[in-house]
Amino acid sequence: MTAADRPAGRRRRRAGLALAAVLALAAAATAAVGLGGGGGTDDRTASAALPPATASVTRQTLVDSQDESGELSHGSTTAISTRLSGTVTAMAAVGATVTRGQTLFAIDNDPIVLFYGALPAYRALASGDEGADVLQFEKNLRALGYDGFTVDDEYTDATADAVKEWQEDLGLEETGKLDLGRVVYATTPIRVDTQEAAVGAGVGGNSAIFKYTGTSRVVTVDLDTGDQRIATKGAAVKVKLPNGKTVTGKISGTKTIVQAGEDADSESETKIEVTISLADQRALSGLDEASVTVSFTAGERKNVLSVPVSALLALAEGGYGVEVVEGSTSKVVAVKTGLFAGGRVEVSGTGLAEKMTVGMPS
Q1: Segment 192-241, tens digit of pLDDT
Q2: What is d(CA 42, CA 328) in angstroms, rounded to the nearest whole number?
């Protein structure tokens, strides 16, 4: 039978089927263009094209946080040595706090005392000397209650008279001169950590006496270099203590360190050492050294729209979109992404609203 001999009705049915196939192919091509380019929306009318799963657009506060293990201690140690020679006859006890004007240790029964300052003692001082070290020394004398001189960078006869009073109070020979090694400078009160010399030992020539730390407990955390984003000086953190309490802290300093390998075959690692100060020292009572958990916050966005990260679609022209589902239809909406946190991402875009349903690609 030829085409001309077939019934007209059958010819019309087959022509209709062919036209439907062409339209379906055209619709599919249009959908592909909408998804891949132009940045607009793609309306899907066939229920078979809907995503296999969905999620809601929510409005919330997103917090990018990360927990890391840390160590509670009094921080790094600093060594104290003596320029004086003789026999150690007294020493501050391990764990003791020493403040300005107090005795650190004694050589031949003469005290060596703590003063506050950032500049190390590097010379003896006497009338006629000038410099920043003179100013630092005079500030300490004044803070201890000695007067009669002008606090400046000049060591005058009036300064020498005040020094004699100070020497008399310490039981030292009243020379009016400051011997090199009679005072040790630190920026704050200190805590004796370990004794490097024993009472009765002979010392001299820059001998080590003890090591000290600050008086406040701090937390140190070694981060991978890839976690630089959370190591921001001044940022607030939360510290969970072994007793279950949580205290707030602040990042007071960061520095890059190189950690040696555990054995000869292991490579060294570059880390970021983060120091965290803790304001509430009373909450740390009974804890000198302990392992803690530190919660860092890299970013926070309040009252923003968010979707699961897996709901994002990469657009051919660049950027991202989400498939908004409305009943039996859906459309792709271009979005701008913001903070990623906890498996969700901040999104914004024209036509996007809270409680909308978005597709979750399989």
Answers
A1: 999 999 999 999 878 999 999 999 999 999 999 999 889 999 999 999 99
A2: 14
Q: Per-residue confidence at 260, pLDDT binned at 50, 70, 90?
A: confident
Q: Which residue, 110, 115, 83, 105, is CA-closest to 172? A: 110
- Residue 276 has φ and ψ, to the nearest 5°, of -120, 125
Q: For the chain, state the CA radius of gyration.
A: 37
SS3 call for 234? coil
- Measuring CA to CA, which residue among 326, 345, 325 is closest to residue 336? 345
CA dist list (Å): 317 to 106, 242, 321, 345, 360: 76, 51, 11, 20, 21
C-alpha 202, offset from chain centre? 44
CA pair distance 227, 66, nearest whole angstrom: 9
Asked if residue 28 lies in contact with residue 330, where contact means CB atoms within 8 angstroms, the answer is no
